Each structure stands twice: as C-alpha cells, then as structure tokens.
Automatic annotation (TrEMBL):
GO cellular component term of the entry, any: membrane
Membrane topology: Single-pass membrane protein
Protein name as it appears in the record: Cytochrome P450
Organism: Oryza brachyantha
Pfam family, any one: p450
Gene this protein is translated from: LOC102700559
Family from the record: Belongs to the cytochrome P450 family.
Keywords, comma-separated and alphabetical: Heme, Iron, Membrane, Metal-binding, Monooxygenase, Oxidoreductase, Signal, Transmembrane, Transmembrane helix
Listed cofactors: heme
C-alpha cells in the first residue's frame, strides 16, 4: 500500500519526467575506455525513482538481488533510491582500500534529510559524523567499558546472567523442551539482561528487564518498518504520514520515562546524596557512570556542558540495541553448528574439561565452571567463535559509510556524501580466500589453517569483517567476543547439545532478515545436563 502511494505521488509530481528511462547504466566506461571519472555500474535507472525497483523489497530477497547484480556488474555496484546514490562493495581488497587505506576519508556517515524532520538529531557513536564529538563518545566507550580492566568490573553481572541462563536451559530439559519460548528468545533475554546491568549498573528483576526490552523493541520495530517511507520525498511524506511521527515520539517518551529513574539513581550515587548502603544488586561501574562524567563542546557558544537527558537516553538505547540481537544471533548460529557437528562439540568440550579440571583429589575428574580467565587459555574455543562469526555474521552489511570528499575506488569515482556499504557475508564466503567456505571448520583458525592468525579488525588485510573495519569498526568488538566465548564455553560445559529428534537435521543454510540475519528455522535442540560442575567459589 505504501509503495503504491509513493509511486502515485511521484507520478503526479513528475509525470513528464517518468516518460524517459535511462537505458544505460549508472556508471560505465568513459570515452576511450577510461573509468576514472565514472560512477560504479548498476542496472538501468528511472528518473526520480532510481533503480531500486530492480531490488525486491523484502528481507533476504534484497541481499539475493544484490548478489545477482554484483555478478552482472562487478564488485562495485551503484544503486539509486530516488536521486541518492548508494555504492555496495563486494570485494575484500576494495573494502580494505576504502575502509583502512583511505580510512579517514571513508569514516563519515551519510546525511539523511529525514533526520531533522523526524527529530532524530541526537548524536550517538554510530550516527555521529566523523569528528571531535564522535571521537569523544567512542574513546569514552572503549576506555571506560570495553577496556579489559573495565570489563572485569562487569564480571558479577555476567555470572548472574549465566546462572539465570543455565537454570532456564535446565528447566527446558526438565519440561521436555516446551515452555519458555524458543532457545533464541532465551538467548535474547539473557543478553538484554546483561546489557541493562552494564548500562545502568543494577541487576534488575526479570519483570523490569522485560518491560524495558518490550518498549525498546517496539520502538525499534516501528522505526525499521514504518519510517522507511520518509526516505522518499520527505518534505511530502512527513506530512502525508504525520501520524507515524507522533507515534514514534510517544514511544521515545515512554522509553525515556523508563530510563531516567535508572540514570538518576546513578547520578545520586555519584554525588553521594544521600549516602546509603549499596544493594547487593548494584554494580560498582556502569556505562551511565561514564556518561555522567562527559563534557561536550557547547556548539561553538563557548565552554563545555554535560550531556542532556535526551542525549543520555539516546546513548543508552544505542548501547542496548548494539549488543543484544547481534550477540544472541551469533550465539544461536554457533550452538546450531555445534548441534549439527557433534565432533566439533566433543572437541570443544574436551578442551574445556582440560582447562577446568579441578584438583579435588579424585584425579581431576570433577571440573568447575568456566571463568573469564579460562577462556583466554582455550584456543579451540576462540576458533569456534571466529568460525561462527565468519560463517554466520549477524549483519550481512555494515552501518553505511560516506566519503568526506570525492574519492576513487577500483577505477571509479565515489562522490562526496555517497552512501557506501560492504557485503560482509559475501566477503567472508569468498572461495578465493577460504577453503570450503560454506562448511563450519573451526580448525581453519588453528595453526596451519587458512584462517591462522586472521586479523578480525581488518587492519592488515580483510578476510572477514563481522564488526566492520577501519575507523568506524564496532567499538564493542572486545565486549562481544568475550561474551560469546564465555557463554558458549559455559553452555557446552553444562550441557550436551543434541538434535531434538532422532535423525532431525539442523538447518544452518536457511536465513531470515530481522534486525540481524537469524536462522530461518529457529534452533531446536535436546539439551542434556552434564555432570554438575563445581562453582567458581568451591
């Protein structure tokens, strides 16, 4: 219905222009065969509308269509949404040239005309233009949250989440796999619970966590599905669909009403007014604590100021969004591969047992839970996690980049401000880089494998980029990898993960686009408790 409205609107406004079609490509060879001043090639475009009509408008079909167009036009693909050019890069060397070799030039974010119209000017790490404010936000996160010393301060939260997750999985076994939602939903709740604790410095009760999660997800779903219409002729559509803007504002206000008491509690704790004995559920450090200490330049008015409440809320919301679905999606894919490949699961379990065997006087037959220090001594665990991120990156594209000035890439010109993206999944499945790329083979990251010593940051070269690369690489890389290693190790230590039914196959090829790329058929498994482990305190 929306597409019909938009096409009709465009026809009424520019009916004469729509008579003419571009029969050539967006870009192509210039006279004499030179390409240096040409835009990247792509399918035929319609004036004003562009050529996104070549790309279907739902889920994974978009990605499949982009792959077909890359096969036809090459590793640099030009697409247009209206008059806006988007370039998609599907080659790892071109990605390295753009994101690393020309890192500063490609570190900006594209401008969207709808941001101001929708009241979304509030800056976050992911949307802020490359410059002093972005550096301040990113440096704060990396130094005060993601730094190993800071990460250790969140250990009580991880232990609490692990205990809850283990208990829910144990109950799932006792109930025969029924009740409590899907395994993926259990993972999502656990990761959200952990991030809420890290963000606000408090282990909230389950009802409070679920209320925040529901409100946050409602806003996320609404924004992703209902606000896309504003990308087309925003001056008109913001009036035509004004009710959607009001609904979005109401959701944002509800979220702010939930966040502010938690933020104010940390503010009072920081100011010690009034002094009080801390609850057992209070953490010594939180993301909010770091935001309360930030000062930003007051827009050229002289002096500096603290963050406003709206800025705090936006950064907290980004914190929760950024690590929930990505980590829980990666967990589901990895555990699915371990169900499908029991030999790999057994090998991982053997490594876990060897590292955690307790000196209990019985020859080390008893083991203990996996600590965060333990995971640093488990190379095969790291290989399993890396292979999961290579084979099933949660996002098949990165957040869009934009060059600060006109730049050349692969013999073509990328104009200033162009939306540029990269096919993360296709790069990590390149047959020229990886042997048997569609197979789940953690050994490739062990000595002698084709992924030995791979640089996941892409600084030296890009062979896989699940967190992006270059200056805008995800600042939560270290947090995410620790969480994946810690929870995968403990879930394999506590349970044997088996197919739910006799001869039932796990589908690790079917994909579905939600906020991340998840399993088309959610993981179903028979989770059998192993011999009880000693707690870390025993």
């Amino acid at each position: 219905m929306e597409l019909t409205w938009l096409l009709l609107l465009a026809t009424l406004i520019l009916s004469t222009a729509l008579i003419f079609f571009f029969h050539g490509k967006i870009g192509g060879s210039a006279a004499g065969g030179k390409k240096s001043h040409c835009l990247p090639p792509g399918p035929a475009a319609v004036p004003v509308i562009g050529n996104w009509l070549w790309v279907t408008n739902s889920g994974m079909d978009i990605m499949r269509a982009v792959r077909r167009l890359h096969a036809r036009h090459g590793p640099l693909l030009g697409l247009r949404m209206g008059s806006r050019l988007e370039v998609i890069v599907a080659d790892r060397r071109l990605a390295h040239a753009a994101l690393v070799e020309s890192g500063a030039a490609m570190a900006d974010r594209p401008e969207f005309a709808t941001r101001g119209l929708l009241g979304l000017e509030t800056a976050t790490i992911s949307n802020t233009s490359y410059g002093p404010l972005w550096r301040l936000f990113r440096r704060n996160f990396v130094a005060e949250v993601a730094h190993p010393a800071r990460l250790r301060q969140f250990a009580p939260a991880r232990a609490a989440v692990l205990a809850e997750l283990t208990e829910k999985l144990r109950r799932r076994h006792e109930d025969g796999g029924g009740g409590g939602g899907t395994i993926m939903e259990t993972f999502q709740h656990s990761m959200f619970f952990l991030l809420v604790a890290m963000c606000f410095g408090e282990l909230l009760d389950e009802r409070a966590v679920r209320d925040i999660a529901a409100t946050q997800r409602e806003l996320l779903i609404y924004s992703s599905k209902k606000l896309r219409v504003f990308a087309f002729l925003p001056a008109v559509t913001t009036r035509l669909f004004a009710g959607r803007m009001k609904a979005m504002l109401a959701m944002r206000l509800r979220l702010k009403a939930m966040f502010m008491p938690l933020i104010d509690a940390r503010r009072q704790r920081k100011n010690n007014t009034p002094p009080r004995q801390e609850k057992a559920t209070t953490l010594p450090h939180s993301y909010v604590d770091t935001l309360l200490g930030l000062s930003i330049n007051d827009g050229g008015k002289g002096g500096e100021r603290a963050l406003t409440d709206d800025e705090m809320v936006a950064l907290c919301s980004e914190f929760l969004n950024g690590g929930t679905d990505t980590t829980s999606t990666a967990l589901q894919w990895i555990m699915a591969e371990l169900v499908k490949n029991p030999g790999i699961q057994d090998k991982l379990h053997d490594e876990i047992k060897a590292v955690t065997a307790a000196d209990s006087g019985d020859g080390g037959s008893r083991r203990r839970q996996v600590s965060e220090d333990d995971v640093h001594r488990m190379p095969y665990l790291k290989a399993v996690v890396l292979e999961g991120l290579r084979r099933h990156p949660p996002g098949h594209f990165v957040l869009p980049h934009a060059p600060a000035e006109d730049m050349e890439l692969g013999g073509y010109t990328i104009p200033k401000g162009t939306l540029v993206n990269f096919t993360v999944a296709d790069i990590s499945m390149d047959e020229k880089t990886w042997e048997r790329p569609r197979e789940f083979v953690p050994e490739r990251f062990m000595p002698g494998g084709d992924g030995e010593g791979v640089d996941i940051t892409g600084t030296r070269e890009i062979k896989m980029m699940p967190f992006g690369a270059g200056r805008r690489i995800c600042p939560g890389l270290g947090v995410a990898t620790l969480h994946l290693e810690y929870f995968v190790a403990n879930m394999v230590a506590a349970f044997e993960w088996l197919p739910e039914g006799e001869g039932e196959a796990v589908d690790v090829d079917g994909e579905k686009l939600e906020f991340t790329v998840v399993m088309e058929k959610p993981l179903r498994a028979r989770i059998v408790p192993r011999a009880p482990a000693l707690s870390l305190s025993e």
